[in-house]
Amino acid sequence: MSALKKTHLFSFHQANGKLTEFAGFSMPVWYKGIIVEHMAVRESVGIFDVSHMGRCLVSGPQAESFLNYVTTNDVSSLNPLSAQYTTFCNHNGGVKDDLVISKLEDNLYLVVYNASNREKDYGWLKDNSEKFDVKVEDVSDNIAMFAVQGPKAESVLQRISTQDLSTLRRFKCLWTEIEECKVFVSRTGYTGEDGFEVFVWDTSLQDPQKAFKVWNSILSAGESEGIEPCGLGARDTLRLEAGMCLYGNDLTEETTPLEAGLSFVVKFDKGDFIGKEALLKQKREGIKRKRVGIRLLERGIPRPGQEVIVEEKVLGQVTSGTFSPLLKVGIAMAYLPIEYSKEGTEVKVKIRGRLVDGTVVKLPFYRRLSENTVYLMGKKVSCPVGDWETLRLRLKTIENA
Predict the structure, then answer these.
(1) Are 378 and 371 in contact (CB under 8 A)?
(2) Is the preceding peptide bond at 151 cis, omega within 30 degrees of 0?
(3) To 5 degrees, how large is the angle CA 277–CA 283–CA 289?
(4) CATH code of residue 119
(5) What does the pLDDT look like over 148-197, one tens digit per residue?
(6) Distances (CA, A) of 36 to 21, 41, 149
């Protein structure tokens, strides 16, 4: 077995965290604990090292048309210093990966994809670039990547940034300096909270000094807010509460963006793109199954692979599941036949041989919209940061409606 790969901050993780293998990397699953880290992001601010993710630069006179061909969203709609969520699809319309593209300037893009698909995605881009006047350069090892997430993320980063972050809207980007290090910042994230992803330029695995300077500066700036370094465990529970997909679980090459509820990233009115014909056919004929949220009505922790039963028939499997640290209930996602995907459909999840009652709910389970408003089971409700008892009471109201 080959040695596990490491990020720029491995020595910090080794000294402070519980390490696990993920996508061929040695990564922290937690530091103080999943629930502590999860709630820090919901209530204040947390920081994640996500440098295990893949990053490449796409440049050249045909960069835009190339990326428009290999992705489903419309890259031509991007202005400089803006980003978009999108997917790579195969020729059958199945999702090869979900990713974020940021336009740094005309003819230059930063493409960020999942750690588990680093080699696959880079190879896919290189193979498809041969017919275009573009350059595809893997920069994963030379740009460190952190996620600073939570309601206090802006105020913490603002203390150390040379640029004003307050006017930066979601999916917009800017260049700044932190500790005299060149940093690219996008208002993006994977937690259901406000937040930023921070890219530290020109910092190699062999000389990670700049990565450490920025990481330590953010930790110091957030000390008064109770900032917590967060591991993969909290990253997973946070994104699941927010109803966000994890590639390999909720998205695979056998699922399409339309089935996954990601039709907003499929732009049929642009030019040709890989998978377009298959997706158009599926759109015309209608999807046969759909990704849904499931909220358990009894005690139990849903896990991937568990059977989802409707009317005494096994109709699906849990793709992602956990016990929600915020909502204090079991939550899961699964694909169900379209006729059983309606909100309120009664289901059972087979957990350790026991059938546990649940119900289909709208996604997201939870996602913050503003300081005082959140989505709860897909419905807008009032909830100031930290007023979790009121939130759980509202959950019971929704349950009894």
Answers:
(1) no
(2) no
(3) 120
(4) 3.30.70.1400
(5) 999 999 999 999 999 999 999 999 999 999 999 999 999 999 999 999 99
(6) 21, 9, 14
CA distance 8 to 29: 16
The whole-angstrom separation of Cα 223 and Cα 184 is 23
User: What's residue 398's pLDDT?
Assistant: 79
pLDDT of residue 344 exceeding 90 = yes
Domain membership of residue 278 (yes or no) is: no
The pLDDT score that the predictor gives to residue 281 is: 99
Q: Quick one: pLDDT at residue 1?
A: 43
Place of tokens 């049929």: 268
Q: How many CA atoms lie within 13 A of 372 on its CB side?
A: 1
H helices of 130-190, in order, are 153-158
Share of the chain above pLDDT 90, in %: 98
Measured distance CA(125)–CA(120) in Å, rounded: 9
Statement to judge: residues 71 and 155 lie in one domain: no
Q: Where are the beta strands (DSSP E) in 286-370?
A: 289-296, 307-310, 313-323, 330-337, 346-351, 354-361, 366-368
With a pLDDT cut of 70, the percent of the chain lying above it is 99
The verdict on 128 and 147 lying in the same domain is no
